[in-house]
Every structure is written in structure tokens, then in C-alpha cells.
Amino acid sequence: MKTVIFAMVVTIAFSTMGCATSPPTFGDRIKADGESTVAIAKQWEEGQSLVKKGEKQVKEGHKTVENGRLDLRNGEQLIITGNIAVETSRQSFQALAKITQDTADVDTAVERAHKLKKYAAAWEEGKDNTEKGRELIKRGNNRVSEGESNITKGHKLIEVGRVTMQGAESSYRP
């Protein structure tokens, strides 16, 4: 009797396993193909999104580099004009200061003192412009570096996106 019960249990177990391993139906296969196609489409769209993001980053990087180079040119120009102003004002100030010491006329002394103040102000302005120029050059160099870095990152994003898209295209089986 134990043998009969054991045989029945084994028979039921095998028949149940047979049902569980039945081949997929046509509907199951179509559904699986549809899910696979949706996943491939999603992968391709993610790649395309990376390409667009990379292209945008490259474009912004080029603009940042351009702005940095503009800062460099403006900074160099400020330094040049500042140095010229410093030198000419210094020379004018020194020359006028020498002759002012020998001035006996009060009106002439006042006029020369006024000119000396003007030269001193121009001298200070030249120094300020030189410093502003240095700051612009520093900012310009930072912008150029930042822009070039963004361009490199953008190109990498574009490459990753294209590889992702190609992977999706190669795995698609219509």
C-alpha cells in the first residue's frame, strides 16, 4: 500500500511538472518580442539623449572658450593702456614736480599743483586698469580651461550615446 501511495504521489508530481514546462504560446512569444522591442527602443532613445546632451555641452563649451579668449584680449588691452598711462603720467608728474619747486609765482604754483593732481589720478587709474587687466586674463584663462573641459566631456557623451544607439540597433531583430 505504501508503494502504491508513493507511486501515485510521484505520478502526480511528474504530471504537474509536465504542465509547468509546456512550450510558450504564440501570444507569449509575441508579448516577449514586444517587451524586447520596447527595451531596445528605450536603449536607443537613451543613447540619442546622450548624443544631444553631449552636442549641447560641446556648443556651450565652445562659447565659454570664446568668452574666455575675449576676456584675454580685453585684459591684455587694459594692461597695455594701463602701463602706458602709468608711464606717461609718472614721467609727466616727475618733470612737473621738478620745475614746480622752483616756481615763485603763486598762481603758477597752484596751476602746476592742479596738473600734478591730474597726473597722479591718471597714474592711479593706469595702475587700476593694469590690475583689472590681470584679473580679466585670469578669468579668461579659467574660462578657456572650463570650456575645453566641457568640450571634451561633451565629445565623450556623444561617443557613449552613439555606442548605446549602435548597441540597440544591432540587438534589434525585426
Keywords:
single chain; 174 residues; mainly alpha; 3 helices
Architecture overview:
The chain is an all-alpha fold. The protein has a domain at 58-174. 93% of the residues lie in helices and 0% in strands. The protein contains 3 helices and no strands. α2 (26-101) packs antiparallel against α3.
- CA-CA gap between termini: 58 Å
Uncertain parts = none
Q: What overall geometry do the principal axes of the alpha carbons give?
A: rod-shaped
Structural class: mainly alpha
**Based on DSSP secondary structure assignment, what is the total number of beta strands?**
0
Gyration radius, in Å? 40 Å
Helix content: over 70%
Overall pLDDT score: 85
Q: How many distinct helices?
A: 3
How is the biggest beta sheet arranged? none
Give helix and strand order, one letter per element, not per position: HHH
Strand percentage lies at under 5%
**Oligomer category:** single chain
Protein name: Lipoprotein
Keywords: Signal
